[in-house]
Amino acid sequence: MFISNAYAQTAGAAADPGIMGTLGMYGPFVILFVLMYFLMIRPQQKRQKELRTMMDALAKNDEVITVGGVLGRVTKVSEGYVTIEVAAGTEMVVQKSAVTALLPKGTLKSL
Questions:
Q1: 51, burial (CB in 10 Å: exposed 0-12, middle 13-18, buried 19+)
Q2: What is the CA radius of gyration of the chain?
Q3: Under a CB-based contact definition with an 8 Å cutoff, are residues 24 and 40 in contact?
Q4: What is the pLDDT of residues 56-81, one digit of tens each?
């Protein structure tokens, strides 16, 4: 008398969310991936391409800095290694990947 009967909703309406329900469920993941691509992945790929171009363009008498902070002048370039003169008569052989930056000409003289 005081309590009314409660009937269950039909299963057909709840089981099919439709295209908008699917987009609403996966939309945040897609947006997050797009943001990660433009904020992290794309700039890193661009830096890697510039570094690869710089390593391929290394030539004799270029002034470089290595990963360890050693400054020197390139005296010899081979396929995977670079010979760097760090002082008069003192040379080091390092991998090309250890060269991080190409310095402007005359930088070593100003130090």
A1: middle
A2: 30
A3: no
A4: 999 999 999 999 999 999 999 999 99
